[in-house]
Design a protein that fits this description.
It is a single chain. This protein is an alpha/beta fold and 470 residues long. It folds into 2 domains: 160 residues, Aspartate Aminotransferase, domain 1, CATH 3.90.1150.170; 244 residues, Aspartate Aminotransferase, domain 2 (3-Layer(aba) Sandwich). The protein has 15 helices and 11 strands. Strands 1-7-6-5-4-2-3 form a 7-stranded mixed beta sheet, with helices on both faces. The chain has a 4-stranded antiparallel beta sheet with strand order 8-9-11-10. Strand 4, helix 10 and strand 5 form a beta-alpha-beta unit. Helix 4 runs antiparallel to helix 13, helix 6 crosses helix 8 and helix 14 packs across helix 15. The longest helix is centred in the last third of the chain and has 36 residues. It is globular. The termini are far apart.
């Protein structure tokens, strides 16, 4: 492609994205294609000759767009948000154009140093103490895995990397912790059977006394407790584990404490919500995702560690071909994560924080919390519904309950959720809480306003009336 053709197509694509932002409500939130429909439209063999960009773009609209679920739609109430914003998209465009690979400082000094500064901005913005240093990982799953590896090495005097496991190590997390903890435990070699799922209380938060009991049992059985993963904002219920008592237990027993605040951490931008991280100063590491609720397009996960030397020692490798003359003076962020190669993620994050400012980001979060509180109040005011978990942030968990037995209620709520999503303008997802099929409504999309939430509630109540009358 010649540069003039690139320029023309680039203008066309930016115009298309701007139109997409303006007209996104015209699309159904969830893709309506069935399994295999997209593959059937794509030739099974690659083209022998290059094709014109106009042809590719037409096929993008014809083939790709019908198979897209629109995460940026204001009716997206599913899972958790995965926001973008114009500032972030433009930052990502520049990063893609530069094509920088920031594996070591010398390969692009700006990629490393901007990341250091912007991560410290984030630390200040959510109220973490000055002792924490930050690095951008791709996802919270990777950040959790890195913390598990550092915990493993610290628990074994950094011998596991050299000689493998000489004794079984145990990891502790609540029964509501994210599946990435299970995956991380498997990948890091702890073994799934050595993950202890700690019981939760009536608010689905980890019970510190139960953690203490599990530690005592394992020590008596000859296991070495290595790490606790506490969650701030669990996926199923939005539960907030009590960081201070958990942190104090970890201090007493010499355990690594990792805090998974992937979704909810953004709420700590608000001084009035910073209580969710009370006790975070006792943690060894913490992660939250600007790519969820802070207008930064995927992927961008903020991973903070109190002792970077422990993380680096667990992960570093020093082949001769990566050594440079300035290694002793700089951070080489390849040693802070799994990947060797690193995209210039800090650029889009820098654009977001500067483009919106802390006050602009805070205003967005406050509005989302207000809208979620409206939904919570509507649920509690309607006798047909039951609130199944505290709704302290942007997630509301509820179900229909007309008094029938639990198995029948589960089937009723499955039909109810299907009816809600069949309408098209909104998309909600589900979980189970103590065996109860639970409908989740997560408010956090950049473009979602009160009219969208009220519209969603109209769809919810209409679907409830229909399934209850059936």
């Amino acid at each position: 492609m010649k540069n003039d053709d690139f320029r023309r197509s680039g203008h066309q694509f930016v115009d298309w994205i701007a139109d997409y932002f303006e007209n996104i409500e015209k699309y159904p939130v969830r893709s309506r294609v069935g399994p295999g429909e997209i593959k059937a439209l794509v030739p099974a063999v690659p083209p022998a000759r290059g094709e014109a960009m106009d042809v590719l773009f037409r096929d993008f609209e014809r083939i790709v767009m019908p198979g897209i679920s629109h995460w940026q739609h204001p009716g997206w109430f599913a899972y958790f948000p995965a926001n973008n914003s114009p500032a972030s998209v433009l930052g990502e465009l520049l990063a893609a154009g530069l094509g920088a690979q920031g594996m070591v400082w010398e390969t692009s000094p700006a990629a490393t140093e901007l990341e250091e500064v912007v991560m410290d901005w984030l630390r200040q913005m959510i109220g973490l103490p000055a002792g924490f240093s930050g690095v951008i990982q791709d996802t919270a799953s990777t950040a959790t895995l890195c913390s598990l590896l550092a915990a493993r090495e610290r628990a074994t005097g950094f011998e596991t990397n050299e000689s493998g496991f000489s004794a079984p190590l145990a990891v502790y997390a609540s029964e509501e912790a994210h599946s990435s903890v299970v995956k991380g435990v498997k990948i890091a070699g702890f073994g799934r059977k050595n993950l202890r799922r700690i019981p939760t209380d009536g608010r689905f938060a980890l019970v510190p006394e139960k953690l203490e009991e599990a530690l005592a049992r394992d020590r008596e059985a000859g296991l070495v407790p290595a790490c606790v993963v506490a969650t701030v904002g669990t996926t199923s219920s939005g539960a907030i584990d009590p960081l201070r008592p958990v942190g104090e237990i970890c201090r007493r027993h010499g355990l690594w404490l990792h805090v998974d605040a992937a979704w909810a951490g953004t709420a700590a931008l608000l001084p009035e919500k910073r209580w969710i991280l009370d006790g975070a100063e006792l943690a060894d590491s913490l992660v939250f995702n600007p790519h969820k609720w802070m207008l930064t397009n995927f992927d961008c996960s903020a991973h903070f560690v109190k002792d970077p030397a422990a993380l680096v020692r667990a992960l570093e490798v020093h082949p001769e071909y990566l050594r440079t003359g300035v290694d002793a003076k700089v951070r080489n962020l390849r040693d802070w994560g799994i990947q060797l190669g690193r995209r210039f993620r800090a650029l889009k994050l820098w654009f977001v924080v500067r483009g919106y400012g802390v006050e602009g980001l805070q205003a967005m979060v406050r509005e989302h919390l207000r809208l979620a509180a409206l939904v919570r109040d509507w649920v509690e005011a309607d006798a047909r519904f039951e609130l199944l978990a505290p709704a302290e942030l942007g997630l509301v968990c509820f179900r229909l309950n007309d008094g029938r037995d639990e198995d029948a209620l589960n089937e009723l709520n499955k039909r109810f959720l299907d009816r809600v999503n069949a309408a098209g303008p909104v998309y909600l997802t589900h979980t189970t809480l103590r065996g109860k099929f639970t409908v989740r409504l997560a408010v956090g999309q950049r473009t979602t306003g009160e009219r969208h939430v009220r519209g969603a509630w109209d769809i919810v109540t209409a679907a409830a009336a229909e399934v209850l009358a059936a």
